[in-house]
Amino acid sequence: MMDKAKQDELKKAAAKKAAELVHDEMILGVGTGSTVKFFIDELGKLKEEAGLHLKAVVTTSSRSQKQLEGLGFKVSPLADVDQVDLTVDGADRVDSQLNGIKGGGAALTLEKNVAVNSKKNVWIVDESKVVDHLSGFALPVEVLPISCEQTKRRFEAEGLNPVFRLNPDGSRLKTHYGNYILDLDLARIPVPSGLADYLDHTTGVVEHGLFLNICDQVIIARDNGEIEVKK
Ligand code: 5RP
């Protein structure tokens, strides 16, 4: 397994490449996670060194919001902006069709809402996230507390191996919207569109982490130092 310093180096390289896509007067969407943190650092540099001026910035987590505001960017709620021009986000897994699993940071609901309201979605990942078929990461599903036990039982009956995501103290993790996350422990997702369709039609499910036909471009930082842009 790759050490953290090396992985951070790769995340930083992918983030730097994505920053080349940012232009003045854009409405920019900024995602969540440790890779995006490096992208926000790059935005800070562009602001400082080149006077970057964005029309508006929306983001998908309070941590990203705090970092952006610390750098002097004003963050707008998604509902206050017209269509987002470009969103840059991380991913937990991405396959050869540019479909992905997201939600490792429990921000999937806002992430998907920002993504589907963006003209262009770019994901920044290190090579460890790239797979042939979606697998290797439990699929996050955000569920309403009012029926969470029934939803969990329904998933169990379907063989989807749901597990409530917990906080370090053992309590159930609550999302920004006060819901729970059921992580589906699946060895492989043979037909992602079939599972997405089932989850989209299950009462009690708020959102799920299958992001299909959403990503336009993925920037992959390879272990050998190369940056691959896949469209
Ligand atoms: C959060 C996400 C993140 O984009 C995903 O977890 C990747 O994060 P990181 O860059 O830290 O690996 O989907 O809900």
Automatic annotation (TrEMBL):
Pfam families registered for this protein in UniProt: Rib_5-P_isom_A
Any single biological process term in GO: D-ribose metabolic process
Top-level EC class as recorded in UniProt: isomerase
Keywords linked to the UniProt accession: Isomerase
Lineage start: Bacteria, Bacillati, Bacillota, Bacilli, Lactobacillales
Species: Lactobacillus equicursoris DSM 19284 = JCM 14600 = CIP 110162
GO molecular function: ribose-5-phosphate isomerase activity
Family: Belongs to the ribose 5-phosphate isomerase family.
Active site, per annotation: E111 (proton acceptor)
Pathway of action: Carbohydrate degradation; pentose phosphate pathway; D-ribose 5-phosphate from D-ribulose 5-phosphate (non-oxidative stage): step 1/1
EC number: 5.3.1.6
Reaction(s) this enzyme catalyzes, per UniProt: aldehydo-D-ribose 5-phosphate = D-ribulose 5-phosphate
SUPFAM superfamilies: D-ribose-5-phosphate isomerase (RpiA), lid domain, NagB/RpiA/CoA transferase-like
InterPro entries in the cross-refs: NagB/RpiA_transferase-like, Ribose5P_isomerase_typA_subgr, Ribose5P_isomerase_type_A
Gene: rpiA
Function: Catalyzes the reversible conversion of ribose-5-phosphate to ribulose 5-phosphate.
Binding residue positions for substrate: T32, G33, S34, T35, D89, G90, A91, D92, K102, G103, G104, G105, K129
Self-association and partners: Homodimer.
Name used for this protein in its record: Ribose-5-phosphate isomerase A
An annotated GO cellular component: cytosol
CDD domains (alphabetical): RPI_A
Signal listed as a keyword: no
